[in-house]
Each structure stands twice: as C-alpha cells, then as structure tokens.
Input
Amino acid sequence: MSEKGRVLVAMSGGIDSSLAAVLLHEQGYEVVGMTMKTWDYASSGGTKKETGCCSLDSINDARAIAVNLGFPHYILDIRSEFGDSVIDHFTGEYLEGRTPNPCVLCNTHIKWDALLRRADNLNCDFIATGHYAKIRQENGRYVISRGIDQTKDQSYVLWGVSQESLSRTLLPLGDLTKAQIRDMARERGFFDLVNKSESYEICFVPDNDYRGFLKRRVEGLEEQVAGGNFVLENGQVVGQHEGYPFYTIGQRKGLKIAMGYPVFVTEIRKETNEVVLGTEEYLKKNGMVVSKLNLQKYAAIPEGGLSTTTKIRYKDRGESAYIQQTEEDKIEVIFDEPVSAIAPGQAAVFYEGDDVVGGGWIMKSYRV
Output
C-alpha cells in the first residue's frame, strides 16, 4: 500500500483523464483506473457512429494506459443510473419549458456518487478526475476554484459536488495548462492521446440534434405540442411554432418566421404552448431566482449578501452580481448590468475571486 494512499481515477480514454492517472501514479499514489459506460447511442435511436467517452475505442484507450503503467483498470456500467437521472431529467426539463444542463447533473449526481461507492468497494481512499479545476480546504470547508488555464477551466460544472465528496477528491490538473498536458503526453510517448480529437457535444446526443432526440424519446411528442402560437411581449399572435420544447431562450435561427427585424425567443410558456418573441432588448434581464442550491465556500451566504461574479452558462465570462440567500434553498441574484438570455433550467454558479461560492438551478428571471 502506498503511503500516499489508493486512488480511483475516472478515465474516459481522453488525454486529460489519462494524464491525471499518469501523474498520480508518478507521484506515488496507488492508482486504480475506472471507465464508466454511461450510455450507448443505439438505444437513443440515432444513426451516428458511437464516439466519445463511452465508445469501445475510448474504453480500450483507457485500459491501454493502465496496462502500460501496470495498474488495474475496471469498466463500470452505469447506463441504468445515468438514464434514470440524467436523460430523464434532460427530457423532462424540455417538456417543462426549461433548458437543461445534463453535464452538470452527470458530474455532480452520477459520476461522483458512482465513483465514491466503487472506491469504497475497492478500498480506495480517494477519487480523481481530469477536470481543470483546483480544490483546497479553508475554514473547515472544501472549496473548488478555477484552474490556472482559464480557457479550459471546468470549475463551473463542479459546483454541485458535496463537501463529503470533495473531501475525498483529487484534481491533479488544476495547476497545469492544456499545452503542458500535451507536452507531458509527448514526453511519455503517448502520441495517440495528443492527436486524439475532443468532443464538446452532449454525450447521448452526439449529432447535436436535441430536437430529434426528444422526438425519438417521447412517443407522439410532435402531435402533443404542435400548433402553438408565437406571440410578442404584448401578447400579439404573429405565427405558429412547431412545439414549445423545440425552442430555447435566446434562439434566433430556425424560427421560420419573418418579422422584418431580428427577433429572439425571450420566454417559453408550457401551460399555453406559447413561445414569446422579442427584440434583443427583451432578452436582457437583471434579476433571477436560483434554487436547489449547493454551497461550497460557505455553509450559507453571509448575512447581508455577497458581491460575486455570476456565470449563467459554461462558456459565460461571468457578470458582477449581488446575491442574497432569501430562504434555505433560494438565492436572489441582482446583476449590476442586464444580462442576455438567462435560461431557466441552466446552472448559475457564483464566484468570489476564483473560488466557487456555490451554485444552483435557475428557476426564473425578471427585470428589476
């Protein structure tokens, strides 16, 4: 047994998770690799060749690293857990008129929980991933902060990881850049990893056609939601749409309606099957309500509120905002300046400097 401990590393077969395992092995940890099979594309009704973290090639790539370095590797089939929690949530959110964020849900409620359970079964002290983020302990709490490589920082998707889970988590890539990781792979002869393409799609919608996925997933959906109205902010009906689940806040392309000026989806009303259109001005709001919270840096938002940088999507740069916890599971957010396309169903993550204060799911937005 290593003095540093035994660590279960989530290995997708890509360069980041592979190098995470390599670095921990070199640092003296006793490494165990595990690749999680979360889905298979054939079951979702698609026709595209299976690629990405769940493909046979990716599983074999992860195993090859383990064999090369002499540590054990396991394959974990969590398709049932993944489908029940992530895919059902993804479908349900669109049917509620919201825009889901399945990657956050998968990271926080599936992968971490699944890894920790198997870590216990395999007598592992820690779990580790290849996320570009850092973790430290401060004032008795575990805090995620941005990785050094701001272009690859993944702290946004980790806001939901619990304190108990963070206490056993290692993130070995947080102090490294993507360029450094590629150089390290080359130095160690892992040239296939350096040249391997990266996927930025939702893993179970690899053709990026979420509308097609919904139609295959929910029998009769098109007939159920067809014939709703496009309306303006004042209630004027200006046309018919194909069904409210097939639109997202901020959408401009693919509306198939000519207004003579640019319009965007500003609101989705499930109850009346209406999709509200408006100019860019109507997309901008400066208030929102966030619920289903997970706080990291503090057990509760300090009394009197907190000035933060708040991100409302993964690639968002973040905007200055004042947050106040109005209930145990609710935060009111007021932005310094109006923000465009706040979408209910997406994750909002609050930062104090580079530290993740916490986050939650956007329930609604409004104008103050």
Observations:
- Confidence is low (pLDDT under 50) at residues 44-51.
- The CA atoms of residues 301 and 330 lie 10 Å apart.
- The radius of gyration is 22 Å.
